[in-house]
Design goal:
The complex is a heterodimer. Chain A is of the alpha/beta class. Chain A contains 18 helices and 21 strands. Chain A has three domains: 4-194, Pyruvate-ferredoxin Oxidoreductase, domain 3, CATH 3.40.920; 208-389, Rossmann fold, CATH 3.40.50; 465-585, Rossmann fold (3-Layer(aba) Sandwich). Helices cover 36% and strands 18% of the residues of chain A. Chain A has an eight-stranded mixed sheet with strand order 6-5-4-1-3-2-14-7. Chain A has a seven-stranded mixed sheet with strand order 9-8-10-11-13-12-19, sandwiched between helices. In chain A, helix 1 packs across helix 5 (152-163), helix 3 crosses helix 4 and helix 7 packs across helix 8 (236-245). Chain B contains nine helices and eight strands. In chain B, strands 2-1-3-4-6-5-8-7 form an eight-stranded mixed sheet, sandwiched between helices. The termini of chain B are far apart. Classes of the chains: A alpha/beta, B alpha/beta. At the A-B interface, helix 1, helix 5, strand 7, helix 7 and helix 9 of A face strand 1, strand 2, helix 2, helix 4 and helix 9 of B.
Chain lengths: 597, 295
């Protein structure tokens, strides 16, 4: 039996590839499996290629990567367009549409000869049983349910519910199409050892959602009542979720005329005293930066989510990349610091978004959340979250005495000045993008500018001691250390598990606070480290370079980075770790390690 | 106008801050800030219930010269920021001060959307046909042929017509004034503030340093024509649009257009929606229940 199954399905848009994946993941989640599903598309809105990767396992899954256990191709041209996103190897079970006319011995997969191949007349079965080849996805669901024993009953219930509105004929047609899939698998059984083990028993029903919806829900939980933004892939679902929900909580969503107006309205709402958020992706982030600077100088809280995609410019709108860290850390002009947080998973973006609001309100600052296309749009099972464990912080308002001769930008010991808002008697002040004195009056004094800069930087000092915004795992004294962030951290975690299982002395640091660089955390982590890897999904390995600005770590710590949408596999990382062990055991720390800088 | 007149009596001085304006002596903007504070004293809302937003430019210094909550933001973005304020707290009285460059060049793209959304804010543009703060460059309302330091041989482009621009997008309240007529200016600002919806007031506010002679207050006094005295029917949109076309050649003062049946404001729609949907809210701490899987 298999503990961990990775299914890749590809076809043309309209083939129902995604909906087949959705049915499967819902059924598997209800049965208690740990699941992750990613979707990948060409840029076309209709037609074009579409694929999903679905990973089902009996233990928590941290990333969707790895070679496929099962490949489903409705059409080989589309399948092959996904290249390394859908890697097939000898052990992969290949299921494909017979009407592609491809011989099972001559699959168009150069260099690979999968042992188990099924040619299935998927369209024909759909047409025969449901009267339309639109039911291809239902046939696929039946095939996968049959072969791997996933949620037959729940999927049947799902089919009945989904088509109920279309009448009994349609329902029964689809049920027959599903049954046809099951029958095919009964007639062509899979070797017993390829089946998926039973799900872990017990435990509450898991949640199932994607990173964008989870981020939006976290915003509601944190008390956000204003969202201003502009549609941009792959962040738009955040605005869409809030548009369905926020009004119920007395809030407002403004779809602005552009990215600048979106964050402009957010900074306005924050000035008016409300918790406010915007969400965007790379190009939108480029446009928003001037107003991020305004919010920093006027010390106004706001949360800005950047769902990263491949860049620069339009880049790769539908693919994940971690190449906007420099932009987030150094976004607007001038001496400035804006905290940057990054979630590692769908579950994690809940706490990270709440934390972003807390930091924003507490430090009176814009906070940037760096999500990415994978987290944003992948569906994942999430263990129930006890929201009571997430405290919510409100901005500090001036007390009665503080409102006498109120100084909005008072230089306090913490650097945090109580903040008023319009409507509060006695709190009147001038907020501005221009440098100001403690009362908010414009100034051109170099001395005041220096003092205010100091205040605005010093207020963030406690952040660098927030060890709870970092995860350290593995052997604390290990000479080999990995650092990884965002969605790629799941790959590093899996590599760590494999390495520890082999007895390698390895550890892993996952920063959720990327900027400011928390020097003490890195210094402690690197104390025992002689060699290591920054594992990142970008050409430049941007975290590696930013940390290096602030922390002296050993020269043997190198980046292991790939541009967006080129999967980083736990097995590759493990290979690097083994090489490092050999290099260290060779007792020659100068010996080059086969890692590209 | 969100609230009835408060019983508290205010003086214009209650709205003037002790910050000394740094405008050039003789700048038209002195008159504008006075007209605004006078209008506010008649409105009766205390300074702390007013948010006064601006962008960048000479005109944008105005919020600091009042006692309201001011927000002197970045170049061209005062309108989106002001809309965020008003949507976040509909109880506030929200004013926006801008100039011809801030409002119709770098921020010009926002005007159409502010107009069509009809959020209840008052937009006062101090139009002097020149970039004063950066010392005399061409502005989007400069006449064709105008020679400035960035149009040494004369401007090659036609000016923006701010009145026609907002009329074109369906603004419900459009007025023009000049500090050469302080009573009239105060009146249109006050009416604009009271108007339920987006109100646009173009103020011909001369630049004493870089403006031409025919743009100064003295010339305004001779040239301005009161729309009211002309017998203009401000509810006549077609006529108002015709008169708006004469921007740049005629200086009409007063209310050019006042929609007799103004459309509902955006804020009205927001409040209605919030009221209609609030019963459906599940407690915030249970929001994650939305993600329980179901087939």
């Amino acid at each position: 039996m298999s503990e961990d199954l990775i299914i890749g399905i590809a076809g043309s848009g309209g083939d129902g590839v995604i909906s087949a994946g959705e049915s499967l993941i819902t059924a598997a989640a209800l049965e208690g499996y740990h699941c992750v599903m990613t979707k990948s598309f060409g840029s076309q809105i209709r037609g074009g290629e579409a694929s999903c990767r679905l990973r089902l396992a009996t233990r928590p899954v941290l990333n969707p990567n790895g070679p496929l256990s099962v490949a489903v191709a409705l059409n080989w041209d589309d399948f092959r367009r996904f290249g390394a996103e859908l890697p097939v190897e000898a052990g992969t079970i290949v299921i494909y549409e017979s009407n592609t006319g491809v011989d099972p011995d001559k699959l168009p997969l150069p260099g690979v000869k999968p042992a188990v191949v099924y040619s299935v007349p998927i369209s024909e079965m759909a047409a025969q049983h449901a009267g339309t080849d639109k039911a291809k996805n239902i046939v696929i669901a039946g095939l996968l349910a049959g072969w791997f024993g996933i949620g037959r009953e729940s999927m049947l219930a799902g089919i009945r519910k989904k088509f109920a509105k279309k009448g009994a004929t349609v329902v029964e047609g689809n049920v027959r199409a599903f049954q046809a899939g099951l029958d095919f698998t009964a007639a062509n059984p899979l070797p017993e050892d390829r089946k998926l083990s039973a799900p872990p028993s017990g435990g509450e029903t898991k949640l199932l959602t994607d990173g964008n919806d989870m981020c939006a829900a976290a915003a509601i939980f944190a008390g956000c009542t204003f969202f201003g933004g502009y549609p941009i892939t792959p962040s738009t679902e955040i605005m869409q979720f809030l548009d369905r929900e926020i009004w119920k909580y007395g809030g407002t969503v403004l779809q602005a005329e552009d990215e600048i107006a979106g964050i402009g309205a957010v900074v306005g709402a924050s000035f008016a005293g409300k918790k406010a958020m915007t969400a965007t992706s790379g190009p939108g982030m480029s446009l928003k930066t001037e107003i991020l600077g305004l919010a920093s100088l006027a010390e106004l809280p706001l949360v800005c989510v950047n769902v990263m995609r491949g860049g620069p410019s339009t880049g790769m709108p539908t693919k994940a990349e971690q190449s906007d860290l420099f932009q987030a850390a150094f976004s607007a002009h001038g001496d400035c610091l804006r905290p940057v947080l990054a979630p590692t998973s769908v579950a994690d973006i809940f706490g990270i978004t709440v934390e972003a609001f807390n930091l924003a309100e507490y430090y009176q600052t814009p906070v940037i959340v760096l999500s990415d296309q994978e987290i944003a749009q992948r569906k994942e099972t999430v263990d129930p979250i006890d929201t009571a464990k997430f405290p919510i912080i409100e901005r500090r308002h001036p007390s009665g005495p503080e409102l006498t001769n109120y100084a909005r930008f008072k230089v306090t010991e913490s650097g945090i000045s109580p903040i008023s808002h319009p409507g509060m008697p006695g709190g009147n002040y001038l907020a501005a993008g221009i440098e100001h004195n403690e009362q908010g009056r414009p100034t051109a004094s170099g001395e005041l500018h220096a003092r205010m800069n100091e205040k605005r930087f010093n207020k963030f000092n406690p952040l660098k001691s927030r060890r709870d915004l970092f995860t350290v795992a593995g052997d604390p004294e290990a000479p080999i250390g990995m650092v990884s962030w965002g969605s790629v951290a799941g790959v590093a975690q899996e590599a760590l598990r494999l390495a520890l299982a082999e007895g390698l002395q390895v550890k892993l640091l996952i920063p959720k606070l990327l900027y400011p660089v928390a020097e003490p955390v890195y210094q402690d982590f690197f104390a025992s480290v002689r060699r290591g890897l920054f594992i990142e999904q970008s050409h430049q390995a941007q975290l590696y370079r930013i940390v290096r600005m602030y922390v002296d770590f050993p020269a043997g710590v190198k980046p292991f980075a790939k541009s967006g949408s080129n999967p980083i596999l736990p097995s590759e990382v493990l290979e690097r770790l083994r090489e490092m062990v050999v290099a260290i055991q060779g007792n020659n720390p100068q010996q080059p390690v086969a890692v590209a800088d | 106008m969100a609230k009835p007149i408060s019983p508290i009596k205010f003086q214009a001085g209650d709205f003037k801050s002790d910050l000394k304006p740094i405008w050039c002596p003789g700048c038209g903007d002195f008159g504008v800030v006075t007209a605004i504070t006078r209008a506010l004293s008649n409105i009766g809302r205390p300074p702390h219930e007013i948010a006064f937003v601006s962008g960048i430019g000479c005109s944008s210094r105005i919020p600091g010269y009042t006692t309201a909550y001011g927000f002197n933001t970045v170049h061209g973005r005062s309108l989106p920021i002001a809309q965020g304020i008003k949507l976040a707290n509909p109880e506030l009285l929200v004013l926006v001060a801008s100039g011809d460059g801030d409002g119709f060049s770098i921020g010009g793209g926002h005007v159409a959307h502010a107009v069509r959304r009809n959020i209840d804010i008052t937009y006062i543009v101090m139009d002097n046909q020149i970039y004063g703060l950066t010392k005399g460059q061409l502005s989007p309302t400069s006449q064709r042929g105008r020679k400035t330091v960035t149009s040494s041989f004369g401007s090659l482009e036609a000016p923006v017509n701010p009145l026609l621009y907002v009329m074109g997008y369906g603004a419900s309240y459009v007025a023009q004034g000049t500090p050469a007529d302080m009573t009239g200016l105060g009146k249109i600002i006050e009416e604009g503030i009271r108007f339920p919806g987006f109100a646009f007031i173009n103020v011909q506010s001369p630049c004493i340093t870089y403006g031409t002679e025919d743009q100064q207050l003295k010339a305004h006094k001779t040239n301005m024509q009161s729309l009211e005295a002309m017998g203009h029917d401000a509810s006549d949109r077609a006529r108002a649009t015709e008169l708006a076309r004469e921007y740049g050649t005629k200086l009409y003062t007063g209310v050019l257009y006042r929609n007799p049946n103004p459309p509902p404001t955006y804020g009205h729609g927001v409040t209605e929606r919030q009221e209609a949907l609030k019963q459906q809210a599940i407690p915030r701490h249970e929001i994650l229940n939305r993600f329980k899987p179901t087939h």
